[in-house]
Hints:
The chain has twelve helices and 13 strands. The relative contact order is 0.10. By secondary structure, it is α+β, with helices and mostly antiparallel strands. The chain folds into two domains: 6-212, Jelly Rolls (Sandwich), CATH 2.60.120.10; 224-336, Homeodomain-like (Arc Repressor Mutant, subunit A).
Amino acid sequence: MTHERIEFCYHYTLGPEWQQQIVNGIGATLTDNKILTMPESIADGGSIFLEVTPGLSVLLMDMTFKVPVAITRIPTDHKYYMAYFDIGDEITTHIIGDTVHRAGYHAKLGMGFMDCSSKGVLMPPIGQRSYSLRLLIEKNHLKELAGSTRDQETNNLLFDETKNTLFFYSHIDSRSKILLSQLKENDYSSPSFELKLKSTALYLLGYLVERASRFEPIINKLSNQDIERVFLTSEYLMANLLYEFPGLQKMADMAEMSVSKYKGLFKKILKDSPNQFFLNEKLLLAQQLLQSGNFSSVQEIAYELGYTSPNYFTKVYKHKFDTLPGEILIKQNSSA
């Protein structure tokens, strides 16, 4: 039996009032202005929203959808940023502008940071647990926190919206992933969960500020078209990890940009050069293949990933993960 996709729109606020849009739109129920329970006909589970401190709110969504839905976040002029962390059991599809991104345990990039003025569409999988956390951070609050990690002039430029766009996608860092995985083991409706969620939100914000302080300050105003074209090339790179890096000129041509502009925007959005991004993703794929049980040797995996020299593959893998690939290899039919 096929179901027609349910579509509804909303926009966030730093206070709990935004949840009424979900109640009115699809008939969800709201308890204590915090816990939102989805209609059983649409999904099992729901969400919890808390105001953590002045300038910081957190939303945790834990749902298993029964029918296809498209949830559209409408751009607003509220003065906040959003950081999301997605560790669902399956791939959740995010659409920013016209560009599709996927997040979850089986996908590549599970963390995003953006201004509230960007439009986003969320299309969660059916029959799989969707689990994600959103930090809503008041802009001046984040600017004040970031000011402790950079000189004032650079910090002012970073947060000057006429000159710069704060926006990036990345992997969830290991410390944040541990916190989120621990949170995922708890029931959000339990009495002690609010304290755990608030504590997690504060740690995640601290990790985010610390991590961002290590990013090279690339001052550039992004257009939606720029973002979409860079993401188009990043998706292409991730879809072609079994081959050699296609070259900067080809990537820049695909993005319809000069090489210099493409390199700068790619690093701004994805926090690595295109070549380093490609290598990192290739080695993360190697890690998955080594533990998949589908290969008999490191050499076989090296060739699968397009390396002509297994020794060179071992060298770059050791440099990335500080361990030899043979030390984590699960051989095919090893249990037989």
